[in-house]
Amino acid sequence: MPNEMNSASITDGFHLVVDALKLNAIDTIFGVAGIPITDLARLAQAEGLRYIGFRHEQSAGNAAAIAGYLTKKPGICLTVAAPGFLNGMVALANATTNGFPMIQISGSSDRAIVDLQQGDYEELDQMNAAKPYTKASFRVSKPEDIGIGIARAIHAAISGRPGGVYLDLTSEVLGATLDTNAATRSLVRVVEPAPRQFPDPESIKRALDLLTSAQRPLIILGKGAAYAQADDDIRSFLEMTGIPFLPMSMAKGLLPDNHKQSAAAARSLGSLPGRRSDADRSTSELASRTRQRPALVPDDTIRAGRYFAD
Fold first, then answer.
1. Cα–Cα distance for residue pair 54/45, rounded to 1 Å
2. 136 three-state secondary structure
3. Is the pLDDT reported for residue 9 higher than 80?
4. What is the pLDDT of residues 221-279, one digit of tens each?
5. SS3 of 26, please?
6. Which of 20, 77, 146, 211 has the fewest Cβ atoms within 10 Å of its own Cβ atom?
7. How far apart are CA 88 and CA 81, in angstroms?
8. Distance CA 298, CA 270 (A)
9. Domains of the chain
């Protein structure tokens, strides 16, 4: 672990990373420690951040991604270079696909050696390897850029549609020293990384007109509704309109499955052998309460329900 600086006027990249994370209210790191980020994990713990170690980077990345989904601030996954980076990339790509805010921070080898392919320790051009599977991929090449690098990663992970971001920290940057005052000035706190965006009024009107004229409306709740944490507004709208709803797996819990408007049984109950009459009766009762005809269930949904039920 880096020793405390002998002079109060000198700091290093390890401390800057921790200071930048703390400035942006990041309090937990998931990861697998090793060269060149072992000292970073130790220092983070010493500075009060919670470090949760794993035996495999993919698991650490999945934990970071779901933490980001639950907290609406990016989960941090810390990995070593090359093999550890690639293991974590599986989870990072999944986070990007599913809209989970996550940042993978990986140590990397000397750029001068890697770029000339001279065979450095765990040599890999990680920043460019990550680009196809992330919202953004950054590399920090100077210690004074650590603050802006972490700030940009946080903004990219949360703004718009959330997703995975890769941040590459070379071993030279982590070990580099610089003046404490200059280091403090280089830190950046992200302000309102995901400002509220209101939909176009015309789009709202079209949606309401469509619902009003629909003969068999069914509202499908997805993970975006859960991520928005708009539980009360969703319940109020559903109960006011009386429209039945079908929660997808990651929207479970927004409203209970035994809610009188829930059509969750359509995903599985109606396809079970010997249970179809029960499902039909349940659907008929729901339709009667909402004054709507039963919602149609696509064949592929029935097949999926039968598969999982079996």
1. 15
2. strand
3. yes
4. 999 999 999 999 999 999 999 999 999 989 999 999 899 999 998 877 655 555 544 44
5. coil
6. 211
7. 10
8. 12
9. 10-186 (3.40.50.970), 201-309 (3.40.50.1220)
